[in-house]
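Notebook B, p. 112. Complex prediction, attempt 2.
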Amino acid sequence: MSASTNSDGLPRWATLALLPAINLGAALVVSSLVILAIGQDPLSALAFMVKGAVGSGTGLSYTLYYATSLIFTGLAVAIANHAGLFNIGGEGQAYVGGLGTGLVCLALSGWPWYTVLPVAVLAGALFGAVWGLIPGYLQAYRGSHIVITTIMFNFLASALMVYLLGGPLIEHGQMAPESREFAESTFLPAVKEIAAGLGYRTSTLPLNLSLLLALLCAAGVWFLIWHTRWGFQMRTVGANEAAARYAGINARTTIVVAMAISGALAGLVGINELQGVQHRITLNFQAGMGFTGIAVALMGRGHPVGIVLSSLLFGALYQGGAELSFEYNEISPRLVVVIQGVVILFSGALEHMFRPALVRLLKPKAAASAAGQRA
Amino acid sequence: MSQTVPLSVPPQPGPWAVELVGIDKRFGPVHANKAVSLRIRAGSIHGLVGENGAGKSTLMSILYGFYQADEGQILVNGAEVRIREPKDAIALGIGMVHQHFMLVEEFTVLENLMLGAEGGALLKDGIRKARAEVERLEKAYRLDVPLDAKVADLNVGIQQRVEILKALYRGAQVLILDEPTAVLSPPEVQDLFRILDALRAQGRTILMITHKLKEIMAITDAVSVLRQGAVVASFHTQDTNEAALAEAMVGRRANPAVRRPGAPAGAPLLTVEDLSIFDERGVERLKRATFRVRAGEIVGVAGVAGNGQSELLEALSGMTPFQRGRVHVNGRDVTPESPMDPAQARRQGIAHVPEDRLRRAVVKPFPAFQNALLGYQDDPAMADGPRLNWKRVAAATARLMEDWDVRPRQPSLRTSLFSGGNQQKLVLGREMERDPNVLLVGQPTRGVDIGAIEFIHRRLLAMRDAGKAILLVSAELEEIMALSDRILVMCDGAITGELAAEDATEGLIGRLMAGITDDMEHGSRADAAGGAA
Amino acid sequence: MSRAIRAALAAAALLSCAFFVPGSAPARGAEAAFFPGVVFDYGGKYDKSFNEGVLTGIERFHRETGINYKALEISNDVQREQYLRRLAEHGADIILAVGFSQAPAVAKVAKEFPEIKFTLIDGVVKLPNVQSILFSEQEGSYLVGMLAALSSKTHTVGFVGGMDIPLIRRFECGYEQGVKAVAPDDHIIANMVGTTPAAWSDPTRGGELAKSQFDRGVDVVFAAAGQSGIGVLQAAKDAGKYSIGVDSNQNHLFPGSVLTSMVKRVDVAAYNAIKAAQDGTWQAGVRTLGLKEEGVGWALDENNAKLVTPEMKAALDAASAEIQNGTRKVANYDETNGCKY
């Protein structure tokens, strides 16, 4: 359905697989040097991370739990990107979206989770959408740059939540700025409950049903972007606004709607974090997922499949890092942040660093394979 | 209209400045250059002609280091060289002037010339040295350029000189010019040719890509013809003529366009009254345009670029809102309450092939079939409910490509990999296949090769004969005279005259383009036509 | 679709190379020996305040017994539960959870592992295998409030709290009672650094608040604000005013300017909990450590000896004795539902 090469002659498989693998490899090499510098054995440390992230059911469950939130925010960033918008506000949209989800869970005490879930999803999406739509409107109709406004909306979200959790929503007599716990009936089934239903016993793990919701969203976004009229219009606006105008596409509405959808997707983080795991509205529950979502979307090249995969990678980094600091007293959790940062740097910001070299290296082969195709 | 430039004596057979031997280049399935061999004499002007997509630009890009050949050798002054990037080419004394200028608009001419060749950390010394050197070059080649003016304030002709000067300042002995005349007005072309002549006289070598055979005859010493990636013919310019070149280019004898009158025109399909556009500063850019286009009629709009023709197309297609006037299509008043938008215009049966097709009419990174849908994404035949049926779109695109001879015939190929002419055919096909009542078309053959020009002209005439109304804006007077049944001439935003095709002469149109309307006979005729509307 | 499949293959390749990292994990399974674990909250074990106090206590235990422990620092909310559970699965004999934020996580994990002992510091979880340790901050604050009033010449004293939560209100309320006990007409100016956890680590804002209080006549200020308090102490030093430190003994930071510190012996609590678990004397339930239990107090050392006159010391000692034997009541903000006394 699309060309097998890019304009610089690099075959698609190299762009999609080899280049990310090289970037990841470079990131691991640099991370190893850092671990070596603090006097630890990088190989066994990395082995621990991998084992911790995917080597056990428990580890995998945490990895998938982190990946769930990242899928939501990665999709959010990607869909805005397809419309030519750099949405840095996933963090704030997730935060406010979580408020919507949380309020529904608080209000619908006693309802069974499967009736709460649709309402909570709607509320989370709606709250997140509003938080994305306003910067979208300001960009489309007032020319305020989306990067600036979405950053500002992150701060506004934070201020709003601090106010609500410190005052109106705080559980009486409680130190922590958190709401009361949701009624148990509203909890989203997690691995333990699902496994119990199938006759297995597991310990309590954060992975819950919202992973399926995230995958559904990924499929939905894929369909929306590439197989609907609206997705086509959105991509046109993102790629060439003059052509969009020529094609009779209303760029302004498209931008506002794209930001609303983007915000709605980010807003679903709360389904995983709050209805799924925390079971109360807590301060900063989104914990940087919105920002990591930018790296996820970059690394996933804006394609839902890529986003799901890079979410898994970043989820594994989070969980592997947690295991690493469990095993090594000397390795601080900050180091894990360093490793994550290096991965983001290589696969996001320096995405094209190895590209020219790769183009040169693969050139004879690319030409030969093209000849093969013709023959 | 033949050789109007005094030429220096063609150079004696001398050494080769540049030799390309067996250059081969592929972009995926596109075989852009097929074992191309080409030799250019030092101190000569060598023309390179060919249809769009014949591989001229690729070849020059390889010489300048933008691409590397898959196979083949490059020799400069007899020695084999490797050119990996433009820096290597510059070091070898090869300079290039692109069709789209690579200047920093906010910098002055001098600053642009110095870019990348600042000569030390302290700007002051560099500026002094640069000024002295540039002034010397200006004098030697009669390149008149205001060094301290901002580039944004200069017209294209001067900007092009800045580009040439930039290449010379970097020590270019060999100069590649990619369609240098495409953006120039006729007097500017004359100036350019004088400069090229002076360069040749001083022993510099020039490689010029062009579509205009007249220019080849006027200025070059030798000419090579590319077709489908291969060199099919090379001539000494004095031994050939335009017809022979055209034949080599298209592989058959091209018929010069001859006007083919259609059947008598029918009812007016497009009626425009008092149409005005004011820009954001309140300047009236289009002044009370009033005319009609009848069924089965092509109305050409002639004028020097920037005299309101573009605004006229923009207003009628809904790209730019107009502030005054009324528009009727097929007898129905379609003047919108709020500013008309292009979707609305399309629904009223107005199709539009914009002048700036690369920027507006296609989204380059999209595969061709997606661009074949652009503007018609609401067509229910191409969707099942909310889902766009890309299979159906691709199939329709394949038919369109067949019908419009778009090459290569690959609906899923990225649009940017098609040549300009093939992109244009895709756009024309898209707009004309939908059977609109009115077709607005701007510069339909700009940057398009001869074979495609002929093809496009035939399709426009066929559409006219099918009883449609066509409004044609073109910078090529010949094209307007060959296709139009009536000609509107614009100057300074106003329609200064309207001529029947059989009355139109180049001289008459030229005077109207210059705003000279004292010719009572033609003036009154235009008034009569306006009054009748 | 083919594009999606290719992308999937690419990722599979990526993940599979991650699997083949050589070297195997050194086994650190459950050991027969006594094994304590601790989970610190945000801020980490070197926060120069509350968390670090706990670390001091465990380090002391480690020095005395040679027994190793496992200390973990969280970087997101979910890790509280994850680490508590991991320690429990590793067979820790006692698990310390530092900070009130860990209460929900402790409640959950303690239920799953009823045979393992949990000690929650600064929060309450009522389960048969959880020991909750609280401090009577109001009692220590009462004493430093008295000292502030005794030292003030302007009859205006200040209070800078960290995050605006009931715990800090408890400090403030005790302080206020102490001041009023000495000089009922003295004026108290109180500010909070903020309403989020970030308020614990903003010394700049702490210093600004202190300066503005000095401008309004304050000459003694009590900082109950974690790291932000360092800014308060610094500002007092710069302005030639008195300050009062918190949690650990901060008298040495600016000798001659820090009047005293309201010490909260988190280290002692942590040490005692682990020690008791080892001895077999550990007991579940809520324990409140006040003046009597030496859980809170005021610091007097060579750094502030010159600032505290014998009369002042006598007054504070007398009040301390009365509080301990119950003849003097200090209201607890949480119990009185607001600062009522």
